[in-house]
Amino acid sequence: MDGALNENDISHVVEADRAHVWHHLIQHKPFETTDPRIIIEGKGMRVWDQKGKEHLDAVSGGVWTVNVGYGRESIAKAVYDQLIKLNYFAGSAGSIPGALFSEKLLDKMPGMSRVYYCNSGSEANEKAFKMVRQIAHKRYGGKKHKILYRHRDYHGTTISCLSAGGQEERNAQYGPYTPGFIEVPHCLEYRAQPDFTGGNYGEWAANQIEEVILREGPDTVGALCLEPVTAGGGVITPPEGYWERVQEICKKYDILLHIDEVVCGVGRTGVWFGYQNYGVKPDMVTMAKGVASGYAAIACLVTTEEVFEMFKDDASDPMNYFRDISTFGGCTAGPAAALENMRIIEDENLLDNTLAMGERMMGNLHALAEKHAVIGDVRGKGLFCGAELVASRDTREPADEKKVQAVVGDCMAQGVVIGATNRSVPGYNNTLCFSPALIATADDIDQITDAVDQALGRVFG
Ligand code: PMP
């Protein structure tokens, strides 16, 4: 680690952090007595904490974000150069990186046509929800306003995103929720619903969505919002036949398909966007984390020309435009970083690396499953993998959450940061999650799974 802080500096930072920072997603009372961790520096796949300890990051910054790895000087330089030239201008004026990144992004998304900039995954999803509601008002007298979301999916932290969230533990205590969001069942084959009686689970699971549409009334349903591969809800890869049927259903009932690529987007699954694995044609796509790998805050809502046209078809109506703004959607650092991030993925062939390393990780996880009966199911696409832990393979009863967290803690002690589903679906916080940067090498992957091997041995015996 370069330029290590001295003892005094470090204790000052630790004290300031403890005294003043309200951290995300933790219980602060127990946190007060745990060893604090301040991450000081990162390079490639690794970060260093305030004690100089090295950590191999298998979760790309904790929440599957830093797709091109840490310490990318060319991104920092692109952002610096842009900020010196022009940091910000909002509203209807364009910017050089905003225009150029849109062009480059759409080049990776055949069939899509317009890019709307904002700051976070939640915000991008909110904007998509607003578009659906406005289209309902403009075209259907307000009737086709309902938005379907899936059990175990997550779409963000605002009240409307929580209303579209299928993770009860995240949602609890934040009601009342926004009306008009309706849940459809999940598609996790390993935990197929009890009324599934056999046949193709993918088609069956998609047909459950159709049942909800018919129950609600197709003329009331405006959109279906899904993650291509469910992330925090348990790394749920879709079963065979699922997406084909989902697409057919949306078409049949004139329902907009909104795909949340906040995690899968920009290479994570070995193709640019997760939906492209399944031949799906979305109407709206939202993305955030990997767009600029965390070097700047940026999120995008991308739509087809058909959706865009719906907002400009009658210029004589003064209300007929998307009446929305995002103050920091005018920041130029985001698209400047995103442009360079995408160039790196292309020039370093990181999609190919993701496919190769994803295969290696899946192979290693399957090998671990041979050795550790606690692994009930292994799932993944590209460098986005999960291992679901169970108390018994026969009953598939989920492993004790505390033990799952103990595995994460043991890996951390070994200098490998992995994740686990947490505070999502009650009883099912039992999936270990792996989403290393797309630059991972075979040695990195092996180091990650070796650490898990040892941790499972120690925690589960
Ligand atoms: N969608 C998905 C699938 C996510 O995983 C997340 C964040 N974990 C979000 C949306 C929300 O993104 P943000 O935290 O940037 O608001």
UniProtKB/TrEMBL annotation:
Checking PROSITE patterns in the record gives:
AA_TRANSFER_CLASS_3 (PS00600)
Query: Which CDD domains does the UniProt record give?
Result: OAT_like (cd00610)
**Superkingdom of the organism of origin:** Bacteria
Q: Which UniProt keywords apply?
A: Aminotransferase, Pyridoxal phosphate, Pyruvate, Transferase
Cofactor(s) needed by this chain: pyridoxal 5'-phosphate
Q: Which GO molecular function, any one, fits this protein according to its record? A: transaminase activity
Q: What Pfam families does UniProt report for this protein, alphabetically? A: Aminotran_3 (PF00202)
Could you tell me which species this protein originates from? Pseudaestuariivita atlantica
Family per record: Belongs to the class-III pyridoxal-phosphate-dependent aminotransferase family.
Q: What is this protein called?
A: Taurine--pyruvate aminotransferase
